[in-house]
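To illustrate this point, what follows is a protein record of this kind.

___
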Amino acid sequence: MEIRNTVLADMDNVMEIYEKARQYMRDNGNPNQWINGYPSVELIEGDINDNSSYVCIDDKQIVGVFRFTLGTDPTYINIYEGKWINEEPYGVVHRIASSSHKKGVASYCLNWCLEKCENIKIDTHRDNSIMQRLLEKNGFEKCGIIFLEDGAERLAFQKTFHK
């Protein structure tokens, strides 16, 4: 597998992966995350334009997609019912999704991000037990609760090599 920046020509494949991820979440006890067409085409186009959207390629096919940025995420400034492992500079992973036919894609993407920045923060919906297990399997620690700009609660995780 390999990771590269997403380009506009990838949009149909990327949006198909997100649609399948939304359906998978609904089918597995998580009907309230990524609702109403989230993430939208416009949002992903913005990620592409600011070079923060990435795709994972396997056998010349897109099998995963995610957003990765370095720097402060405003929704991570305040954390409740816990604390971050550290306050060192960090990278953030958002909107990670993989196609259902390839195993290990999300772990590969997370490890790629950790190679770029050894201090990563990520969040997920309380009902997304599959993502929570994936994060814990990959060595992420649950740190507390954060709130998105719209007030929605998320469970916050961090993995670092800087304790």
About this structure: The two ends are 30 Å apart (CA to CA).
